[in-house]
Structure formats: structure tokens, C-alpha cells
Amino acid sequence: MAPRTKTRDRIIEASLELFNAQGERNVTTNHIAAHLGISPGNLYYHFPNKQAIVAELFGQYELRVDQFLRLPPEREIQVQDKALYLEALLGAMWDYRFLHRDLEGLLDANVELAQRYQAFAARCLQHARTIYQGFVAAGILLMDEIQAEALALNAWIILTSWVRFLGTVGADAGQLDQLQLRRGIYQVLALESAFVAPEAREAVAALQRQYFVALEPLLRAPGG
Fold it and tell me: Where do the HTH tetR-type domain residues begin and end (predicted)?
């Protein structure tokens, strides 16, 4: 069983690498098999089609986000926790950036994946609301429940759309780097600015400076 498991894992790792570099739509199962030096039949033994590979990768991404998008256990949330959440989000977005690049296309092609994503999105939004309410309870943010809900939704829209936004201004899949994603994290922090309690403003401003990336280099002129 060990060689079989190893081949399956190699297929997943290679698929993630190729999807991130070239975009999922531009990569076929034949490309993946050739990249690994295995036959297409060997690949199909483990995965019947590319959709099954995408579903497996989404499962990894889903598990990773579910693990960190929680309030700290047994203690009050702190400003420093923002950095932990942001770095975890940045890492997940970077490692699975192909999912964000063509999300609608992936979901249109797979009804089961679309249903899983809807449940995942609802769960993330609820967890984000709970985290924002935790910051309110800790006296870091000043907002009511409706504002916390709106902030969670706006943050979700930015985070899930940022990679596609970068693509519209000239960054293709192979050109993306983590610096560009950091600006997306900054955009989420910027949403909170009006709600930061006076005693937390200095610490939150320091975080904003840490994640700020100038917008001009991201907006590449055609042919530039």
C-alpha cells in the first residue's frame, strides 16, 4: 500500500504546483502525469478525473482554514492575535491561490464542490463574525452585531476576490507573489480602521504599516 499512497500524494503535490503556476484551466491530467513521469492510466487509478484532484485540494484548504479561524481557547483575544490570523490567511491564500483565481469556474464545473464551498463560506462568515465580536468583547473594536456582520462579509469578499483582482490589473498566475497578497490583507485591516478603540489604535496602526504595500506597482500598465 505504501507505494500507492506515495504516488497519490505526489499527484496532489504536483497538481497544486501546476495549478498555482499556470491556472487550473490550463492544466490537464496528461500535463500532471507527464510532469510526474507517470502514465495517464496510473494517474486515473488514483483520481478518475481532474475534478477529483481539485476536490481533494479544496478539502486540504478547507481543513486548514477551519483549524485557524477560531477564537483562542481559554483566554481573551488580543491585538497580537490579529497578526496570527492574518499570517494564517496569507499563507492559505498563497498556498492554494489557484482556488481564488477562478473560483466561479471551478464551482460551475462541479456541483458537489459548489455545495461544499457554500457550506464552507457560511461557516467562515460565522467564525469571522465570532472573532470580530471577540475583539469587541476585549475592547479592541467598537461596533454592534450588525456592523460586525457587515465587516465579516466585506472581509470575506476582499479575501476571496483579491487574487482575481490582481489578475485584472496585469498579474498572471505565474507572476503572483506574496507581496501582492499582503496588500489584500492590508485592505481587510483598513476596513476596521473606523472601529478601533482609542487604546488599541497604536497597535493596530503598527499592523497596518506591516502589511501595507504600495498599490502602484500592482497596477501594471499594458505592456509595462
Answer: 5-65
Start-end of CATH 1.10.10.60 domains in the chain: 1-48
CATH number of 50-218: 1.10.357.10
* Alpha-carbon torsion, ordered 134, 136, 138, 139, to 10 deg: 170
What are the pLDDT digits (tens) for 96-139? 999 988 889 999 999 999 999 999 999 999 999 999 999 999 99
Instruction: Provide the CATH number for the domain formed by 1-48 in this structure.
Output: 1.10.10.60
3-state secondary structure 98-150: HHHHCHHHHHHCCHHHHHHHHHHHHHHHHHHHHHHHHHHHCCCECCCHHHHHH
pTM: 0.87
